[in-house]
């Protein structure tokens, strides 16, 4: 059984919503990788009574607690005082800490403000954790079942202290058996559809299956420590087979794969391809997602189908929008000197685009060399959702083209 | 005394650090503005026992609790079950919720997966909160001293449900004495520059001054409940005067102003203008930011300066990039039949664009009718930061054009 770990953040700015608690995210990631069972995040403000109560609760509940914030020089920085009170460990003046704080200011040619001397008072018996990046020393104490480490709230100072001072303590103090997370990233199927699709695969009782739907849908498998590599790879392969072409990347088996654009980047670079894009429903977002990709030569957003036609001196063909998109793709390819041209069109009027209760039909045509490939998607929801999904679906046509180019796979040419 | 409010988030992804809990931030901001005393954020994963215990704790501690996550169709979505267990309110099948979920899929031309029927089971006596944006209905229950509202974890669905369904309940149920927040939104000055600029304005001791730097820089003034309207407006006016043309919107004085694009929308619509854009450094993001704006006829991203020249059958003029941008703006205006044309160019090579330690010089030319206006900005930082800042700075040239068009202001024509 992995030790239970909690994250505790002190700060009015956090609980008032002025800043987002990214420290909790960072510490959680590191703790999970290390093999802790992270069970709770809590953030409270600068009320002493709340802090004291929370520390006492955690001391009974968790084996380890990583704490950030409240170590500063001002009166609303209450962590050391709260620890002293909660665990009955009166504050003691730490000469070494005081000398370090003085030195911090001396190095910068400044006198130490009197308020900073407060930071040299640490709970009785606490282990001081030196801060190489700022004035606030951290400290660690064990109380009841829980080992607490207190760090500054400034992310750069916190991260440095964690890596330099706390990580070595954690691996020394705890017997850790890290689980292994495998993530299958998919495009083209909803969360429920994926669940049904993989229902035939038996998930062993000690493997946790989870889903995360953002723009793409991710299938997550959490394997216990020292799980058989062979069985792990077989299970991942079984699920990947069910989801087939929807899987665009798998994380956790070796090097991390990144998002869809990172996948496309590898494919485009390996073939030395160059792409020109015409986008409509995704309104610039397709280009924006490909930030910094050298293979994207140009991407034009044009507001309406009639305007697209005018731009290419054509008569719009609303009865056969795919044929129309193919003609435009050919023009675009030649005009931009690209071997690949991607054209995204939809025929609906503006009021349908803006209506969250109505869907638009988005057609994407890819011209790759002299081969056409196309896909059609119905996209509903708000204007923002339509924009995001249109960008993703059209980019995915490009990825799927490369799948058809694999050996032993027939090529779809139309 | 303002009522105590807690935020509770359910999600393994949050406590494992796979995503950051931005819902807690968003809900805290709104709750504080409304007059709640936000005292704690807690996030737990999908362990039923943890959830049950936490709900029981909160029911004794807070007057109100806003909860997100765990309402999905999958087996790891446990919120309704946890509420049923914690408060002894067995789950009941809600016919209306079921009909709504079915309709959600019907609207999208898909059959409802069987797993989604789980979302129609709500705790006995709970008030159903309809979800206009997704399949998961929310619900609200009162237990002991605390009124709980449960919302989906997907931020867009959560925000919509909060604004449409929960906000009206909160203002009806609680006696709130909100502080009043005024936000001056600026573009074109850094945080330190703004601080120096307004240093001469006396801020009364009971008014809180704060800053938030994201893409723009926001100056925030928090006034206590029932503060004199006259004195409030005078202080805001004094600060706005110091910051002059950098202020693009002020929130909190009447109707909300939204972001820069919302400000532009009003200006463009009132003049019946139409805009064509050529963007380079912002790579599609300028267009993406103007999502749904009818006045944006087209926006082309072109990768490099030589490619821009080729596209317009011109020879690039790297020695006078502004003159070159003006020529292109004229072409674009005619080609697209727009009265306004905005051209963004930079001359640096790709390696400088991608290097976070180097800056690029971004030139933006606006051709409005037959009048040119231009601005030049040095933009540093990561590729992502350069993209965002370039989009913002170029759009801001459009806003500043309208400032010069105000009566009694001389027009800059070059």
TrEMBL record, chains A, B:
Highest taxon of source: Bacteria
Pfam family, one: MoCF_biosynth
Domain named MoaB/Mog: residues: 6-172
Signal peptide: none
Protein name: Molybdopterin binding domain protein
Source organism of the structure: Crenothrix polyspora
Lineage of the species this protein comes from: Bacteria, Pseudomonadati, Pseudomonadota, Gammaproteobacteria, Methylococcales
């Amino acid at each position: 059984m992995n030790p239970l770990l909690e994250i505790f953040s002190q700060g009015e700015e956090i609980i008032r919503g002025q800043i987002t608690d990214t420290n909790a995210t960072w510490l959680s990631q590191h703790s999970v990788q290390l093999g802790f069972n992270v069970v709770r995040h809590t953030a409270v403000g600068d009320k002493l009574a709340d802090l004291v109560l929370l520390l006492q609760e955690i001391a009974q509940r968790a084996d380890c607690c990583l704490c950030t914030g409240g170590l500063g020089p001002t009166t609303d920085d209450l962590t050391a005082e709260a620890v002293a009170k909660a665990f009955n460990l009166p504050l003691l003046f730490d000469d070494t800490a005081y000398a370090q704080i003085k030195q911090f200011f001396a190095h910068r040619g400044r006198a130490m403000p009197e308020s900073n001397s407060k930071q040299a008072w640490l709970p009785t018996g606490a282990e001081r954790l030196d801060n190489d990046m700022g004035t606030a020393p951290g400290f660690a104490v064990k109380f009841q079942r829980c080992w607490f480490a207190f760090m500054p709230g400034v992310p750069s100072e916190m991260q440095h202290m964690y890596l330099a001072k706390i990580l070595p303590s954690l691996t020394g103090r705890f017997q850790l058996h890290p689980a292994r997370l495998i993530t299958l990233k998919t495009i083209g199927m909803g969360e429920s559809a994926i669940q049904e699709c993989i229902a035939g695969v038996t998930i062993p009782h000690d493997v946790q299956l989870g889903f995360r739907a953002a723009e793409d849908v991710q299938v997550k498998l959490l394997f216990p420590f020292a799980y058989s590599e062979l069985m792990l790879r077989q299970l991942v392969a079984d699920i990947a087979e069910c989801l087939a072409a929807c899987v665009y990347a798998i994380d956790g088996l070796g090097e991390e794969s990144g998002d869809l654009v990172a996948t496309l980047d590898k494919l485009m670079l390996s073939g030395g391809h160059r792409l020109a894009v015409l986008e409509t429903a995704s309104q610039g977002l397709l280009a924006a997602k490909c930030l910094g990709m050298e293979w994207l030569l140009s991407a034009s957003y044009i507001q309406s189908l009639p305007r697209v036609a005018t731009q290419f001196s054509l008569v719009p063909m609303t009865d056969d929008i795919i044929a129309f998109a193919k003609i435009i793709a050919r023009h675009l390819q030649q005009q931009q000197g690209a071997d690949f041209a991607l054209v995204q069109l939809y025929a609906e009027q503006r009021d349908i685009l803006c209506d969250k209760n109505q869907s638009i039909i988005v057609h994407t045509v890819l011209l790759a060399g002299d081969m056409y490939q196309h896909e059609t998607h119905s996209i509903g929801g708000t204007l923002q959702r339509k924009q995001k999904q249109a960008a993703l679906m059209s980019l995915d046509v490009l990825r799927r083209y490369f799948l058809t180019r694999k050996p032993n796979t027939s090529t779809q040419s139309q």
